[in-house]
């Protein structure tokens, strides 16, 4: 039996039966197990950012950012005067390469950006979905190998169903495993008000995945929420931790960004960093790249 992030058996069946009433009006949360063979990529250029020191043994660097879907800056898009999606992805890959990132999440990516990432980032593999716009997991091939990939149904604007990959990676040097769930919750906008119900439903999906996880997990991406989701996902009932603040201080902590990461406590996140220089401002409308160090194994 191939290892997965999400457990199976009677417990899972009971849990799914319990979830059905919650999503009766908006669809049924589904998970379908599938497997992915990483694709081959070619090398690409880098951009100038501060050079990171080599990570200590037993630690890896995790990064996340909103990649700003290609259609926004494509001809005819609302931001067609900004840098197009492909050169923006070149900036992203260069940043990951220069800061020695080992794995992470890209929210809001489309086909030209996925293709660009695989073309420019030879050292990384990308795990995505067939959705036109999706959230992807990437990892450094020399550091991790792909163990398994599940797909979980989440909800975007007006309840549109989207697929998110739930990935299990294994650190090659230690055999330690970690799960990654990328997310992109819908924002409430003047053109699309009242999206909180779908963000709340997605939070339940996240909690369900976390509750069934058999390995330490990272949930990261664009939550389109700030301290409210920080408090929710670090609550004792969920059990995740944030590099921004402890649960007891979540409500009074500094205003959180909408791009956040939540981790199992055993990953011991530290050295949280935000890059908000010119490269980040060109690559994403959020104007920042994020990273944190995580511990996957004991230092020899």
Automatic annotation (TrEMBL):
Nuclease as UniProt keyword: yes
Residue ranges of domain Endonuclease/exonuclease/phosphatase in the record: 66-286
Keyword Zinc found: no
One Pfam family, short name: Exo_endo_phos
Gene Ontology MF term list: endonuclease activity; exonuclease activity
InterPro entries reported in the protein's UniProt record: Endo/exonu/phosph_ase_sf (IPR036691), Endo/exonuclease/phosphatase (IPR005135)
Keywords, ordered alphabetically: Endonuclease, Exonuclease, Hydrolase, Nuclease
Protein name: Endonuclease/exonuclease/phosphatase family protein
UniProt organism field: Nocardioides turkmenicus
């Amino acid at each position: 039996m191939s290892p997965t992030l999400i457990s199976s058996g009677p417990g899972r069946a009971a849990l799914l039966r319990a979830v059905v009433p919650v999503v009766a009006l908006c669809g049924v949360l589904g998970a379908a197990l599938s497997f992915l063979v990483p694709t081959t990529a070619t090398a690409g250029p880098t951009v100038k950012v501060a050079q990171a020191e080599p990570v200590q043994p037993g630690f890896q660097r995790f990064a996340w950012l909103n990649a700003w879907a290609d259609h926004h800056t494509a001809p005819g898009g609302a931001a067609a005067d900004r840098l197009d999606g492909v050169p923006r992805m070149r900036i992203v890959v260069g940043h990951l390469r220069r800061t020695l990132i080992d794995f992470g999440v890209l929210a809001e990516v489309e086909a030209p950006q996925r293709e660009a990432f695989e073309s420019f980032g030879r050292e990384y593999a990308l795990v995505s979905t067939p959705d036109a716009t999706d959230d992807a997991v990437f990892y450094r091939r020399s550091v991790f190998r792909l163990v398994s990939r599940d797909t979980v149904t989440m909800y975007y604007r007006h309840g549109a169903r989207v697929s998110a990959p739930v990935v299990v990676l294994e650190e090659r040097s230690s055999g330690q495993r970690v799960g990654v769930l990328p997310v992109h919750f819908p924002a409430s906008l003047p053109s699309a008000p009242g999206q909180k119900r779908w963000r709340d439903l997605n939070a339940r999906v996240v909690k369900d995945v976390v509750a069934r996880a058999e390995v330490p997990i990272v949930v990261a991406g664009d939550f389109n929420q700030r301290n409210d989701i920080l408090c929710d996902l670090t609550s004792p009932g969920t059990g995740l931790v944030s590099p921004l603040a402890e649960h007891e201080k979540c409500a009074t902590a500094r205003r959180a960004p909408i791009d956040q990461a939540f981790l199992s406590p055993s990953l011991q996140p530290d050295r949280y960093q935000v890059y908000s220089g010119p490269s980040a401002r060109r690559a994403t409308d959020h104007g920042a790249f994020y990273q944190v160090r995580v511990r996957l194994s004991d230092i020899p």
